[in-house]
Amino acid sequence: MKPIFITGIGTGVGKTMIAAIVTEALGAWYWKPVQAGFDEGTDAEWVGARISATALAADEGLRAAGEVRLGARANGSRVLPEAYKLRLPASPHIAAREEGVVISLDTLAEKLPVQRPLVVEGAGGLFVPLNDTEFMSDLAHRLHATVILVSRNYLGSINHSLLTAEACRVRGLRVAGWVFNDHYMDYEGEIVGAIYRKTRCRLYPRAGVNHAAAAARGVSLTNLRIFMEGRGPFPMGRRPIARRAIIKRSAGGR
User: Fold this and answer.
1) Is 198 tagged catalytic?
2) pTM summary value
3) Catalytic option among 2, 15, 32, 111
């Protein structure tokens, strides 16, 4: 099973919350390879506090296919340690430079956890620099990951979403689908329609809800709208992630 790479149209759109939901829904492992800024805690800590500790990935179909490779740390957590943990809350290449570190795509590929299913959360959007020449999109491509895109409905998000869709198309990234977050103007219909008109790729609303996956506890409520590509590369089988449903979300845009 290929890793599932969670990225978004920018910072603060809800990637970490969606990563927690997908991790819980699949009984997967979670990995944030590059963390920049941790004075208020890390994304890994936030996810770890909201998913069950048991590896639920002992799904009979996956196990029969030899896709489940366990190996949690001693505390049983499904949250795996970062490859780079940088103090400065800035673009990863800047945060690394402040510490005299160069983030290496080769190192990230070498440290790719063997555990499967695996949810990988990127930092920011696809063109966040890792170093002077490589970007987050290069990491997704190097890991041969299937991508889930997170969009937050706000003024300007149509442009940001379509730019992200175009970047995935040009870079040859396999997109499983989109998660649309927040209430503003219900832009998802505009975005889905524009993607189809440009690429002829159909995106379908995903029916059904996994309530256990919606257990990411927080302090405010939001609507999530899930659209999956018609070609269906995402390995969900008969277990959908979510539907148009109100779930709890954290403060601070996670």
Assistant:
1) no
2) 0.79
3) 32
